[in-house]
TrEMBL record:
<dbReference type="Pfam" id="PF02911">
    <property type="entry name" value="Formyl_trans_C"/>
</dbReference>
<keyword id="KW-0808">Transferase</keyword>
<dbReference type="InterPro" id="IPR005793">
    <property type="entry name" value="Formyl_trans_C"/>
</dbReference>
<comment type="function">
    <text>Attaches a formyl group to the free amino group of methionyl-tRNA(fMet). The formyl group appears to play a dual role in the initiator identity of N-formylmethionyl-tRNA by promoting its recognition by IF2 and preventing the misappropriation of this tRNA by the elongation apparatus.</text>
</comment>
<dbReference type="InterPro" id="IPR041711">
    <property type="entry name" value="Met-tRNA-FMT_N"/>
</dbReference>
<feature type="domain" description="Formyl transferase C-terminal">
    <location>
        <begin position="213"/>
        <end position="312"/>
    </location>
</feature>
<dbReference type="InterPro" id="IPR005794">
    <property type="entry name" value="Fmt"/>
</dbReference>
<comment type="similarity">
    <text>Belongs to the Fmt family.</text>
</comment>
<dbReference type="InterPro" id="IPR036477">
    <property type="entry name" value="Formyl_transf_N_sf"/>
</dbReference>
<dbReference type="Pfam" id="PF00551">
    <property type="entry name" value="Formyl_trans_N"/>
</dbReference>
<dbReference type="InterPro" id="IPR037022">
    <property type="entry name" value="Formyl_trans_C_sf"/>
</dbReference>
<feature type="binding site">
    <location>
        <begin position="117"/>
        <end position="120"/>
    </location>
    <ligand>
        <name>(6S)-5,6,7,8-tetrahydrofolate</name>
    </ligand>
</feature>
<dbReference type="InterPro" id="IPR044135">
    <property type="entry name" value="Met-tRNA-FMT_C"/>
</dbReference>
<keyword id="KW-0648">Protein biosynthesis</keyword>
<dbReference type="InterPro" id="IPR011034">
    <property type="entry name" value="Formyl_transferase-like_C_sf"/>
</dbReference>
<dbReference type="InterPro" id="IPR002376">
    <property type="entry name" value="Formyl_transf_N"/>
</dbReference>
<protein>
    <recommendedName>
        <fullName>Methionyl-tRNA formyltransferase</fullName>
        <ecNumber>2.1.2.9</ecNumber>
    </recommendedName>
</protein>
């Protein structure tokens, strides 16, 4: 099939690579403009742009796709290019720009989105992390026919993935990226063969939204239950991470590993450090004890508590 692809991060690059390997004609790639990165703040291409350039695929980087928006010239140039390419379908994965109706209507088979959740649960910006944070038993990927709403389109295919007890945002991202790449190749093969799949409307029950991750959420709030905090530590790895303060240190330290333990009799106030030894730093919470096991000083590297404690003087 003749495909226009829209995506930006590593999650989307996996899908683009799979489409190219499957023999589809990827006529063009839409991705976010280059962003400054690293200590030198040098402009860097997105993973999707780099993959497209490596494969010799034309790249479009509009700042907006709204013809009546702040950058109408960008949008108009993309519309002219897409009309000339006449794609059969647009595949979208973590692109980062809202697709206006003219984009949704342009391809013959419309626009298909690779969404990293089992819709209708976790519509929105951060479905991977919010699923772990909420303690979901499973996550997955949904291939969805896009419409004007926020992840509200009819479902074409779903792949479920159980969540491991030690699942992190990074590990789930990597697993779902592979699942999504396989799923979109399967769906397009069936579409090309005229075998469906038939769109299934999302049920009204079970809808929830995965709010964007904010750095302001990083600080661990020990007035919350230990189990919830341990899930957040895993969910926010690698971004935005979680932090806590330790006596004697001017800056918060990153927390990359923690486990929830049962409450002891006569628990102190939430936030009280109950023990500090090579096994972990035990902190009282609203329900149970959070044992912190992996830490990182500002500018340093991740360290097990035993190693961290050798240099720490509280």
């Amino acid at each position: 099939m003749r495909i226009a692809f829209a995506g930006t991060p590593e999650f989307a690059r996996q899908a683009l690579d799979a489409l190219i390997a499957a023999g589809h004609e990827v006529a063009c790639v839409l991705t976010q403009p280059d962003r400054p990165s690293g200590r030198g703040m040098k402009l860097m291409p997105s993973p999707v742009k780099q993959a497209a350039l490596d494969a010799g695929i034309p790249v479009l980087q509009p700042r907006s796709l709204r013809l009546d928006g702040k950058y109408p010239d960008d949008a108009s140039a993309v519309r002219t290019a897409l009309q000339g390419l006449a794609p059969d379908v647009m595949v979208v994965a973590a692109y980062g720009l809202i697709l206006p109706q003219w984009v949704l209507d342009l391809p013959r088979h419309g626009c298909l989105n690779i969404h990293a959740s089992l819709l209708p649960r976790w519509r929105g910006a951060a479905p991977i992390q919010r699923a772990i944070e909420a303690g979901d038993a499973a996550s997955g990927v949904t291939i969805m026919q896009m419409d004007a709403g926020l992840d509200t389109g009819a479902m074409l295919h779903r792949v479920e993935r159980p969540l491991a007890a030690d699942e992190t945002g990074a590990s789930l991202h990597d697993g779902l990226a592979v699942d999504g790449a396989r799923a979109i190749v399967d769906v397009l093969a069936r579409l090309a063969a005229g075998e469906g799949p038939a769109p299934v409307p999302q049920p009204a029950a079970g809808v929830c939204y995965a709010d964007k991750l904010l750095k302001s959420e990083s600080a661990l709030d020990f007035s919350r239950p230990a189990a919830e905090l341990a899930r957040r530590v895993r969910a926010f790895d690698p971004f935005p991470g979680t932090t806590m303060r330790l006596p004697g240190l001017d800056q918060p330290v990153k927390v990359w590993g923690a486990q929830a333990l049962p409450a002891d009799a006569g628990m102190p106030a939430p936030g009280t450090i109950m023990a500090m030894d090579p096994d972990g730093i035990d902190v009282a919470t609203a329900d149970g004890v959070l044992r912190v096991t992996l830490l990182q000083r500002p500018g340093g590297r991740r360290q097990p508590v035993a190693e961290f404690m050798r240099a720490y003087r509280g």
